[in-house]
Design a protein that fits this description.
33% of the residues lie in helices and 25% in strands. A seven-stranded mixed beta sheet has the order 2-6-5-3-4-9-8, sandwiched between helices. It has a seven-stranded antiparallel beta sheet with strand order 20-21-24-25-26-19-27. The protein is globular, with a radius of gyration of 23 Å. The chain folds into three domains: 178 residues, Alpha-D-Glucose-1,6-Bisphosphate, Chain A, domain 3; 224 residues, Alpha-D-Glucose-1,6-Bisphosphate, Chain A, domain 3 (3-Layer(aba) Sandwich), CATH 3.40.120.10; 134 residues, Alpha-D-phosphohexomutase, C-terminal domain (TATA-Binding Protein, 2-Layer Sandwich), CATH 3.30.310.50. It is an alpha/beta fold and 544 residues long. β24 and β25 form a beta hairpin. It binds 1,6-di-O-phosphono-alpha-D-glucopyranose. 1,6-di-O-phosphono-alpha-D-glucopyranose binds next to loops.
């Protein structure tokens, strides 16, 4: 077993996006592509000797091969310990849990999240730090800089190890521990929630639920927690076996892609509660009987009722949401008299606030909700939070939602995605709106008068780092808002995201369909940016 130094040269385009490096499998399989990026992570960390890592991924195509390469490279770079989930599996929140629980120096998570998988699909790799959270921008920039000046990588000349057997293997001077990917995470959940109470809800003859794991990583986690530990009837978890191509589906928990769940919710025996998670287990969608609970509302409701949950019974230090997320949670924070932070899109921005005990809960419109129990968003955690709430309040999810709107008013929200558009055209569209920002205040767009317009810039209150260019905000005098930004997670062309939200207090107008409630704003947003004209798209590809 010897360390081999392989000469290489920088490969273009290895700049981490919103959440690590996401590319097609074809791109990742190019000779040296994965190795270059992994070596750049290690170079950015400095001297790796004696350091420890967690390793695992969402099980998508190329996950196993990549894990073996990373283990050989970690050994060659001097890591003393790598903790890897059996089968090279770890959900994103479980990876965060393991980094924190075992006091590791960081972790590598193999995932392209909700993007499709398989040989024709996407792959991804992200680095998390010792706090268990996604690398902050400073670390991502250092990794990217390292990719541009790489001339060699190190790899141990050794065969693959058996990742399907629990136990310890030695690779050179590195100890590789293959652990159960589920147990630590399931124990953590049991420590946060009132499991006996949830078990009694799940055992109630009139409460039926379904969890759709979408053939992605949460299958084994949901089976262990919902069916084994909490006693939900067998079959509660559907699509529970992780598959390398997610069964040909798109592991994105929304109404468009979680078709099996939606069908069950609306079947002959309608369910009281439904939920789904994504490829790597960090996103969640929750449905009540006959209602979709928007992630922005979900965050607000969890915050408003947090003290009903054992882990949060002492109250919340503060709350944070990403900028495009509706301001529903701001109203709760104001009511509770706790701080509310507005961060750029990307879970990495919440880490500092949590580490400094400034926030307990946080969330994003992109189906992400979480708390300081780990440093990633956490799909199953959100589902358990809802179940605990339903049990503690003895009310169905739809009643909890409606009562929340009656008390706080409703923030109507929708996001329109224009996917795989020409990157230059998308950039030009955003630039054109940016140039118009100074002239917009006072103008009337679709019946809404602009109060302010800016390009969101965030100064981290903990370390003072500044993140500029985080999305264009058009704020209206009636409380409505339009946000334009380009996605940082797509792999084909560009994805333009346009977010619309408006506030409604009138009790008689709280139950409209969001597209209807926001119709004038949507027309104004299309008109202002010239979406149909410049992109040639008359309809968004995805509406959430
Ligand atoms: C990632 C990030 C999220 C972000 C989402 C969408 O989620 O962790 O913080 O909101 O991407 O980002 P964008 O709008 O730039 O595409 P995930 O679940 O894809 O890892």
């Amino acid at each position: 077993m010897s360390v081999v130094r392989v000469n290489t040269q920088p490969l273009a385009g290895q700049k981490p996006g919103t959440s690590g490096l996401r590319k097609t499998v074809a791109e990742f399989s190019r000779p040296g592509y994965l190795e270059n990026f992994v070596q750049s992570i290690f170079n950015a960390l400095g001297d790796c000797s004696g350091k420890s890592l967690a390793l695992g991924g969402d099980g998508r195509f190329y996950n196993r091969q990549a894990a073996q390469v990373i283990l050989r490279m970690a050994a060659a770079n001097g890591f003393s310990r790598v903790v890897v989930g059996r089968g090279a599996l770890l959900s994103t929140p479980a990876a965060s849990c393991i980094i924190r629980k075992y006091g590791l120096d960081g972790g590598i998570v193999l995932s392209a999240s909700h993007n499709p998988g398989g040989p024709e699909g996407d792959f991804g790799i992200k680095f998390n730090g010792a706090n268990g959270g996604p690398a902050p921008e400073s670390v991502s920039s250092a990794i990217h800089a390292a990719t541009t000046r790489l001339d060699h990588y190190l790899v141990l000349d050794t065969p693959d190890i058996d990742l399907d057997r629990l136990g310890t293997v030695t690779l050179g001077s590195t100890t590789v521990e293959v652990i159960d990917p589920v147990a630590d995470y399931a124990d953590l959940m049991a420590s946060l929630f009132d499991f006996p109470r949830i078990a009694s809800l799940l055992g109630h003859r009139r409460f039926h639920m379904c969890f759709d794991a979408m053939h992605a990583i949460t299958g084994p986690y949901a089976l262990e927690i919902l069916e084994r530990r909490l006693g939900a009837p067998p079959g509660t978890v559907i699509n529970a076996v992780p598959l390398e191509d997610f069964g040909g589906g798109h592991p994105d928990p929304n109404l468009a892609h979680a078709g099996d769940l939606v069908a069950r919710m609306n079947g002959d025996e309608p369910l009281a509660f439904g939920a789904a998670s994504d490829g790597d287990g960090d996103r969640n969608m929750v449905l009540g009987s006959g209602v979709f609970i928007n992630p922005c509302d979900s965050l607000a409701i969890l915050a408003a009722n947090a003290t009903a949950i054992p882990a949060y019974s002492g109250g919340l230090a503060g709350i944070a949401r990403s900028m495009p997320t509706s301001r529903a949670v701001d109203r709760v924070a104001a009511d509770l008299g706790i701080p509310c932070f507005e961060t750029p899109t990307g879970w990495k921005f919440f880490g500092n606030l949590m580490d400094a005990d400034r926030i307990t809960l946080c969330g994003e419109e992109s189906f992400g909700t979480g708390s300081s129990h780990v440093r990633e968003k956490d799909g199953l955690w959100a589902v358990l939070f809802w179940l605990n709430l339903i049990a503690a309040l003895s009310k169905p999810a739809r009643t909890i939602l409606r009562e929340h709107w009656q008390r706080y008013g409703r923030d109507y929200f929708t996001r329109h995605d224009y996917e795989a558009v020409d990157a230059d055209k998308a950039a030009a569209l955003v630039e054109a709106v940016r140039e118009r920002l100074p002239e917009l205040p006072g103008q009337c767009l679709g019946g809404h008068t602009v109060q302010a317009a800016d390009d969101f810039c965030y100064t981290d209150p903990v370390d003072g780092s500044v993140s500029a260019g985080q999305g264009l905000r058009i704020l209206f005098t009636d409380g409505a808002r339009i946000v334009y930004r380009l996605s940082g997670t797509g792999t084909a062309g560009a994805t333009l995201r346009v977010y619309y939200d408006s506030y409604q207090r009138d009790p008689a107008l709280l139950e409209l369909a969001p597209q209807r409630a926001l119709a004038t704003l949507i027309a104004a947003g299309d008109e202002l940016a010239g979406i149909s004209r410049l992109l040639g798209r008359t309809q968004p590809d995805v509406i959430t």
